[in-house]
Amino acid sequence: MIDTRRLRTLQAVADHGTVTAAAAALHLTPSAVSQQLAALEHEVGHRLFIRDGRGVHLTAVGKIMLGHADEVLAQLERARAEVADYTAGAAGEVTVACFATAISAVLAPAITALRASAPGLQVRVRDAEGDQSLTMLLDSEADVAIAVEYRGAPDDRRLSRVPLYAEPFDLVLPETHPLAGRDAPPGPEAHPPAVERPDLQTETHPPTGTSLAALADETWIGPYPGNPVHDVIAFACEQAGFTPRFAHCSDDFRAVVALVAAGAGVALVPRLALRDMAQPGVAIRHVPGPERRVFAAVRRGAESHPLLRPLLATLRDLTTSFTPDGNDRSQG
After folding, report:
1. Whole-prediction pTM value?
2. 49 vs 249, more confident
3. How far apart are CA 63 and CA 51, in angstroms?
4. Among residues 14, 150, 161, 239, which one has the fewest Cβ atoms lying within 10 Å of its Cβ?
5. pLDDT digits over 143-160, tens only?
């Protein structure tokens, strides 16, 4: 009989590419991981990995076993969910890995709402930029990941996804920039919450903003490569006919805006990241096109868990009231 713990080890080594990295993700020693793999190969009767320098690669049989491991472990997630449901698992702890902007815009309001609707549910938050949240989810360091879609992202069948919202990007320019005086609406300032400016609810066609093509020769500031937002920005610029020249990198949008204010370059920033940010020294302009699409993910089979259902439902309810520009219609 194949030990399911060894199937999890197989997944981890396939994900991370080395025994050492898999051991760190599983909180085991490298020798323990090697022993688990050797035992699994003995149970299967075939080699599953080929060593290549410091890394390892799946054999053909290893790929077959990995596909079955994904199915078996997803079924175990369903079993845990059903058992928890049977035992009325209305109280417990859920760990959510999430990037900073979504923590303030979505996750924190969800925690507030859950105190009334699911008082037994305790949510632990782990700040995870880029696609780190998905790695934490697959490594069982988190129960839910809130992440950003990006070009070329694998369609991992081990995950069940829930679309949450899409928000536009705004162009951030030094206030002395020649394009800063264009007659274009600033991002969050042009679309404040309806409770403050109810007359703006009827705006459906904001004035045309600055074209990205006019910024082809600019110095750019943005997140590090590997952060999905970096890919969204690069793709938007490619669609405009150029490759952005990133001279400064930070995953902290406050730092990005501060660098723009210092005249170090220009940037595209998701609108929700600008919503509550002081913006002295910069001009914010609407640009058509790029969007940040955000989703929640759980391990496939776990979506019916009684502790995850209310959290996912609350996230969906909160984000269905978002307008395309990142404001909340429910405030009106």
Report:
1. 0.67
2. 249
3. 15
4. 239
5. 999 999 877 665 688 899
What does the pLDDT look like over 57-78, one tens digit per residue? 888 888 888 888 888 888 787 7
Q: Are 21 and 33 in contact (CB under 8 A)?
A: no
Dist. CA 235–CA 232, nearest whole Å: 5
**Per the structure block, which two tokens stand in for 151?**
């070009």
Residues 6+ apart with CB under 8 A from 216: 237, 240, 241, 242
CA torsion through residues 77, 83, 84, 86, sign: positive
Is the CB of residue 26 less than 8 Å from the CB of residue 12? yes
Residue 9 CA to residue 6 CA, distance in Å, equals: 5
Tokens of 208: 């045309």
- For β-strands 121-127 and 267-270, DSSP reports them as unpaired
Q: How far apart are CA 311 and CA 201, in angstroms?
A: 29
Distance from C-alpha of 28 to C-alpha of 235, rounded to nearest angstrom: 39
Tokens at 133, concatenated = 């949240």
Closest CA to 298 of 98, 121, 151: 98
Separation CA 300–CA 302 (nearest Å): 6
**Contact of 58 with 9, CB cutoff 8 Å:** no
Q: What SS3 string covers the chain?
A: CCCHHHHHHHHHHHHHCCHHHHHHHHCCCHHHHHHHHHHHHHHHCCCCEEEECCEEEECHHHHHHHHHHHHHHHHHHHHHHHHHHHCCCCCEEEEEEECHHHHHHHHHHHHHHHHHHCCCEEEEEEECCCCHHHHHHHCCCCCEEEEECCCCCCCCCCEEEEEEEEEEEEEEEECCCHHHHCCCCCHHHHCCCCCCCHHHHHCCCCCCCCCHHHHCCCEEEECCCCCHHHHHHHHHHHHCCCCCEEEEECCCHHHHHHHHHCCCCEEEEEHHHHCCCCCCCEEEEEEEEEEEEEEEEEECCCCCCCCHHHHHHHHHHHHCCECCCCCEHHHC
- Residues 73, 7 contacting (CB under 8 angstroms): yes
Mean of pLDDT over the chain = 82
